[in-house]
Amino acid sequence: MKRSRDAASVTSLPQSPKVEADSRTRRYLISMSIRMVCFALTLFVTPYGWYTWVFAIAAAVLPYIAVVGANAGSDSTVSRAETPQQALDAPLEAPPAQPSEPTVIRITEADRNRES
Predict the structure, then answer these.
(1) Three-state secondary structure call for residue 78
(2) For the whole model, what pTM was predicted?
(3) Residue 37 phi/psi, 5° resolution?
(4) What is the pLDDT of residue 16?
(5) What's the domain range around 65?
(6) Whole-angstrom Cα distance, residue 18 to residue 69?
(7) Cα gap 54→64, rounded to integer Å
(8) Domain count, the chain
(9) Does residue 43 lie in a domain region?
(10) In this structure, is residue 39 part of a structural domain?
């Protein structure tokens, strides 16, 4: 039996919702952990200098980036619809020839008022 080129593949299916949610949660927690480190570095690293502003800006901007990244999901992957049926091969024989004249069926009804 030949395999069709359009046959569904398990590897072409998108991630399950649970796996995708776990991945987004993990990314969010990593971003917020980096934010907490930046916030702590802003307060505790002395002497204060230009790098203090970099840590402060990162601590202020990272929550927005983390939330947008967590809500984005996996829209960047394009998945196409897969058909559950395999493609059928074309028949090797030509279809039967059609009659040259179409078949016409005529039905006539008798007038009931005339028969009486």
Answers:
(1) coil
(2) 0.53
(3) -65, -45
(4) 81
(5) 15-73
(6) 17
(7) 16
(8) 1
(9) yes
(10) yes
